[in-house]
Amino acid sequence: MLNYTLRRLAFAVPTLLVISFIIFALLDLAPNDPTGNLPLTIPPEVREEIRRSLGLGEAFPIRYLKWLQQFMVNEPLNLIERILGIEIGNSAERLRVRSWVTRSPVVDLVVERLPQTLLVVGMGYVAGILIALPIGVVSAYRQYSWFDQIGTFVSMVGFSVPTFFTGVLLIVIFSVHLGWFPSIYDTMHQVTHLPSFWVQVRQMVLPVAVLGLYNAAQLSRFVRASMLDNLGQDYVRTARAKGMRERVVLFIHVLRNSLVPVVTVIALGIPTVFSGAIITEQIFRVNGLGQLLITAIQGADIPLVQTLTFIFAVLIVFFNLIADLLYGMLDPRIRYE
Amino acid sequence: MRRQMNAPSASDWEASALRAVALKTVFHTQDGTIHAVNGVSFHVGEGELLAVVGESGSGKSVAMMSLVRLLPMPPAAVTGEVFFQGRDLMTLDAEELRRVRGARIGFVFQDPMTSLNPVFTVGYQLMEPLRRHLGMSRRRARERAVELLELVGIPSAADRLDDYPHVFSGGMRQRVGIAMALACEPRVLIADEPTTALDVTVQAQILELVRDLRGRLGMAIIWVTHDLGVAAGIADRIMVMYGGQVVEQAATADLFEAPRHPYTRALLDTLPGRHVPGERLRAIGGQPPLMLQEPASCPFAQRCPQVFDRCLAANPPLVQAAPGHDVACWRELPVDKVHHGH
């Protein structure tokens, strides 16, 4: 298992290098100019000076390698320094990936936005899982019952209606008409005591509900299908023939088998938590990673887009590995040697 | 309505470990109803090995699963009576029935590759019935599980307990399946084609094991198989099923020497051992019946070489043709001998 993990990690390095090159090259090929938004009164020489100060004077391969060094070496070092409070080498001299728009290091922006996204989108994901599991299990066990029919219908609706519709719908109902929850997520809100905690909970309810329903719609279908696959298996009959209670048959024998693919799918979906529910973050004004990416794209902030996209790529590669390892842990028939 | 007239002697019935009367199983599916089992009555004596023989779709497996309602309940509907240890299993509720299953009636299934749960260890699956029915502690159940694996001839049993099913061969898995069925020392063991999925040498080993276990534990065994050769080698008595009903039943030697039903004779003719070398193997022409309604005529009539008008007019009852030998065929049953009830 360890051997396999190390081999997979070693494999991830060239994969990520190729991805990083493609991302960098694609965005570099796109027409862009960091001085494009500056006033027209600035003379061309000064503009050229600005471009050179941002490192754009160099040839493409040099810029790529420098970006790679900044991203792979400098920024991780900065993070380690910040977390441990120590200084490794000459940290002030270290070049950092900087945003063209804000001129602040890209990683600092990401670190600022990450907690909002993890809290809101992550909770939406967790809520989705918690809703989907029982619905999927009961739907499969009582296949074609009214519960299953309603579950299927709700899933189809939840899956096919986009979040920008459900989000706005919930705002209209619960914020505008009923006034129960705020429609805008206040990122600056600090949780200091119980009442402020409730404010935080209330402002999270709507975005979490939108994302939870969307995730649950997909996942509950998957849980149901996986349960149905297993309910028809011979070992289920064997368990019943041994006189096991239905509870044991369902929740131990069948569920344990059904969870193998479900857990894999859940693990594979985690990177989407980070890349954020871009649309949902926009609707509820959550200042998360999704919104950061959107503003970066709109403002042609190439370094920020490159870095964010690459971070997502790293997460996807990493969670693919996690999913494979989980599969091996959950299913004894699969052994990585 | 078809009447059962196999009227075994009273002592026969008292000695039976399990007795089914007029068992009927109907599947209500979207494409219509399927009458899989049509009024099957039989018994198996204490310590007796009864082989149930018939081709695919003859209802033999469904009939045995119906005994303890081990079928998906809708779409299946089971009626009849099943007497076991002084009770009618059909009158028991689901929980009472679960206390019989696995505890007093054990099951071995056809495909050992799929009938064990792949994500639990063999030990865990063996200990489940021990803990549920006998209330054993984990430690005691583990000791007993080792004994059971030794009983079914699995080498270094204590070490194999924590292995998952996929590391066992097919034959070894079937041994585990048998150990699981025998865990609580049932009075009746129902084996549903337990050797069909195994290759011939392994099949012989399993048959040997069952013969040995039967001698040691003395439970009654109902052995479902489509292989007359297997049945001949192991059974005390053979019951032949066709079209969801019993067409003939007799002691093994009796059945092989003097088969009375045309279907039994046709089955025996298909056995390769009965052929002159070089001759083509024989098969029974035609297809088994689709059982979309209760049979109103002899189910074998379409394929029977000796069919006559009466076979198409009415379904022959199972009657005693000789002591201990019952057959359901109009050829064996002169009109004046028909009498009703039992």
Automatic annotation (TrEMBL), chain A:
Record PANTHER family: INNER MEMBRANE ABC TRANSPORTER, OPPB IN A BINDING PROTEIN-DEPENDENT TRANSPORT SYSTEM
GO cellular component, one term: plasma membrane
Top-rank taxon, per record: Bacteria
InterPro entries in the cross-refs: BPD_transp_1_N, MetI-like, MetI-like_sf
Pfam families xrefs: BPD_transp_1 (PF00528), BPD_transp_1_N (PF19300)
Record localization: Cell membrane
Membrane topology qualifier: Multi-pass membrane protein
Keyword Lyase assigned: no
Boundaries of every ABC transmembrane type-1 domain copy: 114-323
The organism of origin for this protein: Kumtagia ephedrae
Name of this chain's protein: ABC transporter substrate-binding protein
CDD domains: TM_PBP2
Keyword terms: Cell membrane, Membrane, Transmembrane, Transmembrane helix, Transport
Annotated family: Belongs to the binding-protein-dependent transport system permease family.
PROSITE patterns in the record: ABC_TM1
Any one biological process term the GO annotation gives: transmembrane transport
